[in-house]
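Data availability (excerpt). The following record was deposited with the supplementary files.
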Amino acid sequence: MKLMGRVISEGKARGEALVSSRPLSFYGDIDKETGLVIGRDSDIHGCKVVDKILILPYTRGSTVSAWVIYALKRRNLSPKAIILWGPADPVVASGCLISNIPLIDMVRPKPQLYVKSGDEVEVLETGEIIIYC
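Predicted structure:
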């Protein structure tokens, strides 16, 4: 299965999907020391974003989110890529850009219809997303 989205932060990545049906905030919902999702309202609470292809509807903002993304990357705890089916938040976009993490938004058709946590996913520099089944 192939999906297509808008490239915000270029790059290629391939790995295991971690899919949430709820938005996440990098500040408050993810522990920057461990990469663990700590937000109690999250449907992926207790999962690690480390080396995952993180798939979300959108992110909830905080101006600190870019710093948290960068801190995760420096500690080798960041996701390999982030895929959003809604629009990217400018703060998260800047965090991905300075951290060299691929970010694709406005993905169609909506990935939550085709991808589940544990599936292997590849993100290409063109904004194409390949789901391996």
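Summary of structural features: The mean pLDDT is 96.
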